[in-house]
Amino acid sequence: MKTAKAKLKLIALYEDHKCLWNQRNKDFFNFELKDRIWDAIADEMKADSPSGFWKHMIHKLRYKVEMERIQEQGAKFSGESPQPKLFYSDNLLFLNHMFDREGGKPPREIPMHLKPSGPTLEKNPSRNLRHVQEKRKRTPIREKMASLEKLRNLQNSKFVLSRDAFQKIQKITSGGPYYLTKTKIRP
């Protein structure tokens, strides 16, 4: 998409159909309707063009605007001057309201009336509480190796081990005496 006019037209069409971007919309999970809308947008943009292309383009535009916001925040933090703004970033401001409720009504607040509980014995109760952190369970080496193998197979990569590395992994995963005697127990 080369022209600015085409980008602005695509953004306007995308904004008109709230079910494509507003997650609170009742038709947000109606995928058949969304496919029909994307087909209509594709026909509006260019006759007989694939809807997947325009869907990809809007995601690309959204990504660029989000990256611009992140870079802008980083520039503010580091004291640098921000980079020039994308010409269409203001047109995508409607995405800031993608979680808003339909009709613009805020959620109803329930007032909470707390009764005084009376005097407490501790002056600083938070001082007596200690931070409890849940310890991570160690993942067995067999599970790690299985997940690595699964990942390798899914990505069809050329993951190659040296002969020594393969033998060490084979000994560790076999559960033989090497595994029982050579491992160190860490606290």
Automatic annotation (TrEMBL):
MADF domain location is: 9-100
Per the UniProt entry, the signal peptide is none
The cross-references to PROSITE patterns, in alphabetical order and at most eight, read: MADF
The domain of life is Eukaryota
Residues annotated as region Disordered? 115-139
Q: Where is the composition biased (Basic residues)?
A: 128-139
Q: What InterPro entries does the record point to?
A: MADF-dom
Q: What is this protein called?
A: IP07406p
Which organism is this entry from? Drosophila melanogaster (Fruit fly)
